[in-house]
Amino acid sequence: MDINAFLDMGGYGAFVWPSYGLSALVLIAVLWQSHARLKRSGAELESLRGRNREAAP
Amino acid sequence: MHRFANPTRFLKLISALQPWAMGISVLCLATGLYFALIVSPADYQQSETVRIMYVHVPASWMAMFCYSALAGASAAGLIWRHLTAFVVARATAPIGAAFTFLALATGSLWGKPMWGTWWVWDARLTSVLILLFLYLGFIALEGAFDDRSRGMRAAAILAIVGAVNVPIIKYSVDWWNTLHQPASVVKLDGPAIQSSMLTPLLLMAVGYTAFYFWVMFVRVRAEFNDARIQALRLRHSQA
Amino acid sequence: MSAPDPSPGSPLGALIARDIRLALRQGADSMMVIVFFVLVVVLFPLGVGPEPAILGRIAAGVIWVAALLAAMLSMDRLFQTDHEDGSLELLVLSPLPLELQFLAKATAHWLTTGLPLIIVAPLLGLLLNMAPAGYPVMLLALALGTPSLSLIGGVGAALSLGARRSGVLLSLLVLPLFIPVLIFGVSAVDAGLTGSAAKAQLLILGGLLLGAVALAPWAAAAALRQAAE
Q1: Residues in chain B whose beta carbon is closer than 8 A to a beta carbon of chain A?
Q2: Contact call for B52 and A49, based on CB within 8 A
Q3: What does the alpha-carbon distance between residue B152 and residue B77 come to, in Å, rounded to a whole number?
Q4: Which pLDDT score is estimated for A23?
Q5: How far apart are CA C69 and CA B79, in angstroms?
Q6: Is C3 inside any structural domain?
Q7: What's the pTM value of the predicted model, to 2 decimals?
């Protein structure tokens, strides 16, 4: 398959690729941010529980 | 459904479902992209730009789907006082807004080669733009109060009010558009869908849907963590 | 607040009268709304140019958009004084249904905002070179549409009560919901201008008003109860 024709998309490459690219970017960004928040909250929860265990005799 | 009002049970459920959502999403998106970009044919009239349909239409569908989920979860939270429903609503809003934005952006990128301008006030784009404002209004209202639960309940009412309005808005925008549309209407949907186009479209749609659940589950779990953190902090300060 | 009468009609009337009196005491508000309405309309010829044909073409839209914006102006104050002086709880606990009290407030808002707009509208049509054929329909459409604006806006005011930056928030919440009224309102006037019947549009505006009267009090009452907690 001709890679140049693929990228060119019949002359409309400048529209097709940004569409796919932007979609991927936004969706991955949402996923990333959500995961980051989950990790952060999980870590904080763990540290609080650790402190709890230390505090308890 | 009421069984899952229990936060612990709900958390267990979504933690179990999350890998499935991720798996289905990745699989469908991967195969969908393959079909969309490589296998499916170019359109007779719209040539290669028709491929934008495979990201535009699923995004539009998800914009609507997420708003229904938002309104439904809000209603469940208000009627049955399930806090888990509110958590789902809060988690859904930014994802729905993202899909809505993508529907607009890809619609714009599709419109430029088709109609010559970056923005067209056709019925669909206009309705989706208004939908974006409904999402933004929900997110803004939810976060505008110091008392978070007040914000959530106000936003829940707004989501339901908005849901009642969505068909009205859609109808009025359709009306408005037919009044002002010139005779030759290019439907953003493209031509009648043949199976070679239906396959990637459905694959992408399923992939997007599973993706929503995946991300929503992640956000809900983060919220539950935050709630536990708050409870622990409270206990520490009281100790 | 005096104890309510046993007959259901008079407490509502008394409420409306009280709310009108309050609104008129803030009479500056009513004047400000009209001045704003006129100013917005006047800005358009300055912006787009004085050519009568163009102005006449956009007149209906400009007047309606200005009406929407003007309706928003005094909206966030709808429950402000009650919220601030603590009488919101009294309203919620009162034997009179909260939904009815909301209707009273919305009516008072319309009487002090929407009605003056309708009265001033013909003058603005003149400024924008609107053809005479459009005036009767415009007045009728505004009469049917502006009460809906007060009702829908009132729901927004109840929802954003006590929020940070409630004025801006209110606009974001409510303007999308105004759009059907805007579309059919302008369409009605345009139909009148081209000589065709505006019956369908006016019927829809009437339907929207009935829907708003039926549903807005519920939503607003729910929101007010949240605010009072």
Answers
A1: 33, 37-38, 42, 47-49, 51-52, 55-56, 59, 94-95, 98, 101-102, 105-106, 109-110, 112-113, 211, 214-215, 218-219, 221-222, 225-226, 228-229, 232-233, 236, 239
A2: no
A3: 10
A4: 97
A5: 34
A6: no
A7: 0.88
